[in-house]
Amino acid sequence: MPQRERVRCAECPLRALPTFRELSPAEAAFMEEFKRGELIVDPGATILLEESASPHVFTLLEGWAYRHKQIADGRLQVLNFALPGDLLGLQLAIMNEMQHTVTALTRVRLCVFQRDKVWSVYRDHPSLGFAMTWVAAREEQLLDGHLLSVGQRNAIERAIYLTLHLYDRAKAVGYADRDILPTPFSQTHFANALGVTPVHLSRTLRKLRDRGLMRWGEGGIYLQDRVALEALASYERPGEDRRPLI
Amino acid sequence: MPQRERVRCAECPLRALPTFRELSPAEAAFMEEFKRGELIVDPGATILLEESASPHVFTLLEGWAYRHKQIADGRLQVLNFALPGDLLGLQLAIMNEMQHTVTALTRVRLCVFQRDKVWSVYRDHPSLGFAMTWVAAREEQLLDGHLLSVGQRNAIERAIYLTLHLYDRAKAVGYADRDILPTPFSQTHFANALGVTPVHLSRTLRKLRDRGLMRWGEGGIYLQDRVALEALASYERPGEDRRPLI
DNA sequence: CGAGAGATTGATGGTACTCAAGGACGGTGG
DNA sequence: CCACCGTCCTTGAGTACCATCAATCTCTCG
Predict the structure, then answer these.
(1) What are A53-73's pLDDT values in tens digits?
(2) Cys-Cys with A122: which of A129, B93, B99, B223 at CB 3.0–4.6 Å?
(3) B67 contacts on A by Cβ (under 8 Å)
(4) How many CB pairs under 8 A join A and B?
(5) B215 in helix, strand or coil?
(6) Of A19, A95, A124, A140, which to mutate for an interface test with B (greatest number of B Cβ within 10 Å)?
(7) Nearest by Cα to A62 from A6, A103, A106
(8) What is the pLDDT of residue A2?
(9) What is the pLDDT confidence band of residue A4, given thresholds at 50, 70 and 90?
(10) Nearest beta carbon to residue A140 from set B91, B145, B241
(11) For the domain B147-233, what is the CATH code?
(12) Neighbour tally for A170: CB within 10 Å
């Protein structure tokens, strides 16, 4: 585990983003103590493995990752993508078991916390305990939206919905600008998130390109007609509420 | 809102079930104070409505309900079913917004809590705050499994998986015995949970019946060959861990 | 230059959807 | 008591969507 020079929580660059809430000085001091160090993970490496009990939980500081889950025969579902500010391993921290795996898509920088100290967060800083629940509830909300998509929408609508969803989340942490969503993932990853095959996703993207709505290429997805895309997928832009960062 | 004679939390019949954790006397006393009363809801009635901010959150004490979410054009996804012991409106309590609706399937008895007092749970009883996160993390875990199913399995596998999942949850709260899962929901509800049409579900159930695996009828689903069913859907029985009840 | 991974396109088949009609209830009212 | 209704389930026929198999193409990288 290559450790790196650590950033002080109070000066965490993520914290400066308008999506995140401020910390009180007391909370910042506590986080500082709670934080165990930083960790760099290479693209494709596993951050947390299903069934295995890592002694750490993480906050993603830089880069992209994805949560996924497999059936015994190999079929794989991407449950969600993780972006800076997202907490990894909350299930592990609370329930002492992981039922999914987290893998890095890019080179990833993580903030490392000791799992068995999670309880002290609740005991010593109730506001941070509340924030933990917030984070869990938000993840549930994202999954609800995703499940609605996979269960009810067709491939075109799903592709649009996920693209817009990721664009908005990426933009909130400074990972997207103008109308380009970077694609550190392959079409296979994206297809596994949508619940379609890569082949069918490719055809779906072709249709979207032919219609002049969006284009996947040159390292990103180009949103050419956001208004039309939102209408097609009945996408609703998320609220502007600030969320906690742990 | 018809109020009813309330049960004291320390004597809550749910608490006696082996699936749930005990409460310390202090915790029980606090819950007692936190609890605002009980509420009976008729089948088909809405318990919590998307976008609207109810001043209450609930724990389901008796009966079945379901969480669902709709697209503007009417397509509806059942996100999950709720059984006794499940917390309803956690997103509302924490994030002040609901992005799904909860509807009663049977006559339902609810434990009512004041939403704006949720913060005091964290402040005064950290262990209960921890339990709140636990509940949220568990819901996320259920959704992960469900999403894997809807995204990757075919209709037969999905029907089996959801049936076994519900059977195990129902059994844990004494709502299923022998090999019969009661069905307080219609096939349309079930189909909307699986992400297939009711018509196709009906055909799928026919195949399962013809193969002698399970049968939907006479008020319940009869699991005829649990071993074969588990193998077909690569279902894994959940852990025996006790979970908190709030 | 060759290997390998990812993306694209074509051909074909299967799974699931749509439209439609009929059957089996349970509840209501004449 | 039974006709009538609505809801839910079932079955059939035709179609659309998506999966599978397979071949080609691009690109990167050793």
Answers:
(1) 899 999 999 999 999 999 999
(2) A129
(3) 144
(4) 148
(5) strand
(6) A140
(7) A106
(8) 47
(9) low
(10) B91
(11) 1.10.10.10
(12) 19
